[in-house]
């Protein structure tokens, strides 16, 4: 049974909705949103330049697999990134990476098939697999790096296993799978004839090693014919609301996905595709570099602040734009005192006492985790994280006791504000 997804912000959400209020990370505001999963940055001039050609696009029907010039540009960019040739016939432009993930699953799965998912997972993945009549099989990532153990993946494979979904750089953990892990997953997929769906949503954001993403098809070219890559273009441009992504796969899979998309009627608008094409052909990666440098600054600030945590190990944040805290040791101690029931309780308390939004790990199938985004402006990230560190460090200093209603009603925001 899927665990209930939980998030904490200043408004109420239905169970399963992991998002918090967007656009509320303004400096000086009472509430700081470190629970978002998009980048909030003032790149208005870059966005305006990217949008310059949009108004000149004529109206009318167009190829449901995407504009040919854009598919060619994506294929060229992907070839440069992976070291493997791609053609426009192997690319389908989609309305975001989630749509690409859906089409990938529809193309290779049938009812009763099993799909291996690494936990912590992205919240939308298990429900998607279940909706298709397939069966999610969970394999836990290994702490503290949160990378999968290939022997554990092998142990989870049955005759009904059809695919494995990998996600590196990872949301929520920020993990980046190393070459050995990727190669061994590729070997396993070839040996057991299973599909690899590689979610490379955060491929533009790798902060360790060679500071560049390595796809599984780069590490193990032999899995290219068994791999479907899904990726957004709008994420790396800090324009997640454009909902533009792509799917890359062998030509037969791409043709099947194109047919699915032509019936679904959700191809991205020509205007958005033109904007992405303009970025790929004209801006020469300027927006991506600006976004990356923005995140590097926020990450450096955040890691320095989080190094002051006492009962919680500081995160690695090798990729994506999330700090993922393992609260197991702290929560266990507080549970022994009878003061905290679970990490969800810690997250609720953080919101109440610090006015900082975060996402409890239960949203991702991990009762021990807490996700904090550094996609907000660095100044907001610094203020929010200082409050979080102060609040977490103070939990073990308190005497075990039942707090009165009067104490719970005290507004702690000013006392915890740096």
UniProtKB/TrEMBL annotation:
Residues 44-388 form the Aminotransferase class I/classII large domain. Transmembrane segments: none annotated. Its EC number is 2.6.1.1. Its cofactor is pyridoxal 5'-phosphate. GO terms for molecular function: L-aspartate:2-oxoglutarate aminotransferase activity. SUPFAM superfamilies: PLP-dependent transferases. It is an enzyme of class 2 (transferase). Keywords: Aminotransferase, Pyridoxal phosphate, Transferase. CDD domains: AAT_like. It comes from the Bacteria. It catalyses: L-aspartate + 2-oxoglutarate = oxaloacetate + L-glutamate. Coiled coil: none annotated. Gene3D superfamilies: Aspartate Aminotransferase, domain 1, Type I PLP-dependent aspartate aminotransferase-like (Major domain). Belongs to the class-I pyridoxal-phosphate-dependent aminotransferase family. This is aspartate transaminase. It comes from Bradyrhizobium yuanmingense.
């Amino acid at each position: 049974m899927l665990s209930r997804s939980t998030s904490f912000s200043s408004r109420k959400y239905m169970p399963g909705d992991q998002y918090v209020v967007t656009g509320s990370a303004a400096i000086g505001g009472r509430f700081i949103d470190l629970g978002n999963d998009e980048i909030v940055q003032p790149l208005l001039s870059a966005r305006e330049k990217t949008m310059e050609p949009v108004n000149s696009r004529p109206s009318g029907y167009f190829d449901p697999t995407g504009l040919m010039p854009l598919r060619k540009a994506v294929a060229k960019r992907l070839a440069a990134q992976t070291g493997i040739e791609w053609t426009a016939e192997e690319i389908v432009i989609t309305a975001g990476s989630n749509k690409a993930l859906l089409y990938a699953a529809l193309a290779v799965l049938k009812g009763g098939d099993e799909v291996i998912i690494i936990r912590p997972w992205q919240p939308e993945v298990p429900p998607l697999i279940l909706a298709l009549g397939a069966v999610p099989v969970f394999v836990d990532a290994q702490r503290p790096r949160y990378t999968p153990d290939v022997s554990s993946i092998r142990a989870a494979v049955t005759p009904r296993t059809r695919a494995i979904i990998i996600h590196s750089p990872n949301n929520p953990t920020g993990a980046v799978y190393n070459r050995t892990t990727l190669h061994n997953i590729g070997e396993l997929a070839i040996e057991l004839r299973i599909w690899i769906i590689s979610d490379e949503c955060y491929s533009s954001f790798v902060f360790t090693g060679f500071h560049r993403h390595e796809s599984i098809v780069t590490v193990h070219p032999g899995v290219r014919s068994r791999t479907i890559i899904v990726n957004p273009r709008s994420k790396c441009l800090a324009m997640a609301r454009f909902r533009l992504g792509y799917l890359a796969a062998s030509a037969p899979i791409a043709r099947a996905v194109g047919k699915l998309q032509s019936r679904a009627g959700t191809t991205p608008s020509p205007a958005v595709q033109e904007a992405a094409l303009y970025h790929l052909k004209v801006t020469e990666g300027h927006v991506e570099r600006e976004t990356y440098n923005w995140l590097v600054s926020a990450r450096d600030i955040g890691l320095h602040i989080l190094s002051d945590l006492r009962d919680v190990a500081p995160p690695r944040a090798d990729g994506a734009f999330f700090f993922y805290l393992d609260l197991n040791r702290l929560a266990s101690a507080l549970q022994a005192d009878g003061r905290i029931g679970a990490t969800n309780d810690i997250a609720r308390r953080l919101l109440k006492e610090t006015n900082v939004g975060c996402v409890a790990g239960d949203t991702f199938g991990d009762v021990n985790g807490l996700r904090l985004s550094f996609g907000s402006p660095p100044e907001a990230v610094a203020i929010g994280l200082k409050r979080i560190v102060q609040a977490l460090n103070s939990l073990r200093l308190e005497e075990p006791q039942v707090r009165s209603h009067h104490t719970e009603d005290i507004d702690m925001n000013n006392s915890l504000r740096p």
